[in-house]
Design brief:
Elements (H helix, E strand, L loop, with lengths): L1 H25 L2 E7 L14 H14 L4 E6 L3 H14 L4 E2 L5 H9 L3 E7 L4 H9 L13 E7 L5 E7 L6
Parallel strand pairs: 1-4, 2-3, 2-4
Antiparallel strand pairs: 1-5, 5-6
Length: about 170
């Protein structure tokens, strides 16, 4: 009888541990921050090049196995077009953000739960990462499009950065 009781206690402890680990995982926030894909020209309404369209799909493919529940983009056509394949796959609406208020936007992002894609520019994406993680990245060179900054923020607010890349790689 004591053996059965001890076994039951052990099973209950494992269930409680498993449940607490699941709830910790649910409290984690994962942010995928990218620069828009290759653009045709410098205008605000610029479309993506053929390579840019391929890169936008590659970003979406990275996120296919992720439970994305938020997608943000600046209001420029090139950023919206970069976000579109991921938004279509996850059946989400792209929410616009202001690239001129990055500190405030970083604080807003920290309040989210789940997984988010944020599409910005060469001079906003690395700076937004800085606000989230405390790094000191500079603006990206105009020829760099392949960076995927993956910021994970745990339930205690501690942020970690992982770098990934899309193909084809740029310098």
């Amino acid at each position: 009888m004591k053996l059965k009781f001890a076994f039951c206690l052990q099973v209950l402890s494992l269930i409680a541990l498993s449940t607490s680990q699941q709830s910790l995982a649910q409290e984690q926030l994962t942010l995928f921050l990218v620069r828009h894909a290759e653009k045709v020209d410098q205008s605000q309404e610029s479309a993506l090049t053929e390579l840019g369209e391929l890169r936008a799909r590659a970003i979406a493919e990275i996120l296919e196995s992720e439970p994305v529940n938020h997608i943000y983009s600046t209001p420029f056509n090139r950023t919206m077009l970069t976000a579109k394949p991921a938004a279509d796959f996850h059946q989400l609406t792209v929410t616009e953000y202001d690239g001129n208020t990055l500190q405030e936007f970083a604080e807003q992002l920290r309040q989210l739960e789940g997984v988010a894609l944020i599409v910005g520019h060469s001079n906003t994406t690395p700076i937004l990462v800085n606000h989230l993680v405390g790094t000191d990245f500079l603006s990206l060179d105009e020829s760099i499009y392949d960076r995927v900054y993956v910021v994970t923020i745990d339930s205690e607010g501690i942020a970690r950065l992982e770098m990934r890349f899309t193909v084809p790689r740029t310098r």
